[in-house]
Amino acid sequence: MTQHYEPWARARIRYFYNRFGSQIRQRFEQTPFPVSMIVGVAIEETGYIWNAFEKRNLSDEQFLGLIVGDSYGFGVRTRWPTSKAQLLSETGGKDVFDAMRQALEERAALVGGHTAQYARNPNNIMMACGPWQYDLGFVRWAGPEFFAERKWRSLEQCMAVFHKEIEKRRKATKMPVRNLSRYQMALIATAYNTGATGFKPARGLNQGNRTQGRW
């Protein structure tokens, strides 16, 4: 990390851990994944989102409800759905569109800036939700309910989804079921960030998202 990024990340870690750490520890205490790893993935995925409103007096449901991101717009995405028509043609797609549109408008009203500009186009919606960024593409594999019913406003619901996905990445990277090293945890988290088919074992940690020029 650079000197600029490190204090920012430490502040986000402290905030998220203080707010949700006890619930996360209880939910994952019988798993291979320590709370430090789970919080770390949340920081990487969405810390930049909640940084804008963490000092506001929001309930947990309000706070989690605003953690929606990936405002790239239809046509920019390379994975399904790449268009509004694709989403609307899926069972429950209209309800998903309406829910993610509402989430965009709520966040835009609070934080303004790029999000407000993005919201000016009525065809734009948020493409992912929750602290660990559950992508809209999962509508096809897991059903529309999580998005359409705005279940990401519940930490328990978000943790259930994240546990399922991070366990898939652990198995895909062939990591042990206990006593994970820091490096092994980092590889699993990197695989989570790259997606199911994006992780390249030969590249190790040199893949996934980049922040200030660092992987």
What does this protein look like?
With 215 residues, the chain is mainly alpha-helical. Helix content is 54%, strand content 3%. It contains 10 helices and 3 strands. The chain has helices at residues 5-28, 35-50, 60-65, 84-89, 93-111, 113-119, 139-142, 145-148, 155-172, 182-194; strands at residues 68-69, 128-129, 134-135. Strands 1-2-3 form a 3-stranded antiparallel beta sheet. A hairpin with a 4-residue loop joins β2 and β3 (134-135). It starts with a helix and ends in a 21-residue tail after the last helix. The mean pLDDT is 91.
Radius of gyration (Å): 17 Å
Number of DSSP strand runs: 3
Runs with pLDDT <50, length 5+?
none
- End-to-end Cα distance: 9 Å
Question: What is the topology?
Answer:
Blueprint: H1 5-28, H2 35-50, H3 60-65, E1 68-69, H4 84-89, H5 93-111, H6 113-119, E2 128-129, E3 134-135, H7 139-142, H8 145-148, H9 155-172, H10 182-194
Helix pairs in contact: 1-2, 1-9, 5-6, 9-10
What tags apply to this protein structure?
single chain; 215 residues; mainly alpha; three-stranded antiparallel β-sheet; 3 strands
Give a quick summary of the entry.
This protein has 215 residues and is mainly alpha-helical. The protein has helices at residues 5-28, 35-50, 60-65, 84-89, 93-111, 113-119, 139-142, 145-148, 155-172, 182-194, and strands at 68-69, 128-129, 134-135.
